[in-house]
Design a protein that fits this description.
- The protein has 284 residues and is of the alpha/beta class.
- It folds into two domains: 126 residues, Nucleotidyltransferase, domain 5 (2-Layer Sandwich); 142 residues, Exopolyphosphatase. Domain 2 (Nucleotidyltransferase, domain 5).
- The chain is 46% helix and 24% strand.
- The strands form two sheets. The protein has a six-stranded mixed sheet with strand order 5-4-1-2-3-12, sandwiched between helices. A six-stranded mixed sheet has the order 8-7-6-9-11-10.
- The radius of gyration is 18 Å and the shape is globular.
Length: 284
């Protein structure tokens, strides 16, 4: 059986398709549509009908692909932008009515907790997952004492639009200092993956990260697109994302920063998989 997931994020809408058996789940393909909900939510306070129609059209395009793959089991979640828009409930109902499928708006802590479905989520004492999105940033760490999760209203798009709050930076900094040191940061999200790929590496020391981030920040958006083939919606926010990673790394006294392709859409699909099958599984 094939299953799928859709993640309506702040900077883009993403979907992934997986092949499953009662004992395994395997990623097949992913899709991404650069629809930036955060530009309206953080600037105007709410999502317009025009933007919601874009969301609906995108979901329907994904659903056509699902039909071709004979997929009838899929989950749709929405994150930070949908949490923050003043017309969140009306927007959710409007989309659900159009597509005849449930849409779940998840909280920041629910988003952080989803990382537990990552098969390598046992971070131990020295690692921490950082899911840095367009509107919020989630943290996840698991050790012998259990799971710790946090969510902060800081993200690449929110910060770029100057809608970040000093109090939230302070709150995040104080928490990070309370759990330091964490030697390795495992970054989740397109910005950190794109940055590491642009530098032809899977991991950087914190010192090298700062140096490379500074070099990138000297380039204009157009130069970033030309030199590194970034999409426009990546090139214009990546500096803000890297600035956050530097702040996080410094406060955690981290030694290295790496990334994973895992994201919300993966976790949502694996969660659905667990609901469909009860046997012991292998994730590939």
């Amino acid at each position: 059986m094939k299953i799928a997931s859709i993640d309506i994020g702040t900077n883009a809408i993403k979907s992934k398709i997986f092949k499953t058996t009662p004992t395994s789940i395997e990623f097949l393909e992913g899709m991404r549509s650069p629809i930036r909900l955060g530009s309206e939510v953080f600037s105007d306070g709410q999502l317009s009908k025009k933007k919601l129609k874009q969301v609906i059209e995108t979901i329907q395009q994904y659903e056509e692909i699902f039909k071709l793959n004979k997929i009838d089991r899929y989950e749709i979640v929405a994150t930070s932008a949908f949490r923050d828009t003043s017309n969140s409930e009306d927007a959710r109902r409007y989309i659900e009515t159009a597509i005849n499928h449930p849409l779940t708006v998840i909280s920041g802590l629910e988003e952080a907790q989803l990382i537990r479905f990552y098969p390598k989520s046992n971070t131990g004492k020295n690692k921490i997952f950082v899911d840095l999105g367009g509107g919020s940033t989630e943290f996840f760490l698991r050790n012998d004492e259990g799971i710790t999760i946090r969510s902060f209203q800081l993200g690449a798009v929110r910060n770029m639009l100057k809608k970040d709050q000093k109090a939230e930076w302070f709150r995040m900094g104080e928490w990070l200092k309370s759990i330091k040191p964490r030697k390795k940061i495992i970054g989740i999200g397109g910005n950190i993956r794109s940055f590491l790929q642009a530098n032809n590496t899977k991991e950087l020391t914190s010192k090298e990260f700062t140096k490379k981030a500074k070099e990138l920040s000297r380039l204009s958006t157009r130069e970033k697109i030309s030199k590194y083939k970034f999409s426009h919606d990546r090139a214009d926010v990546i500096d803000e994302a890297l600035r956050m990673f530097e702040f996080i790394s410094s406060n955690l006294e981290a030694k290295t920063i790496t990334s994973t392709k895992w994201g919300v859409s993966d976790s949502v699909a694996v969660k659905l998989f667990h609901e469909l099958y009860s046997s012991k599984i292998n994730i590939s």
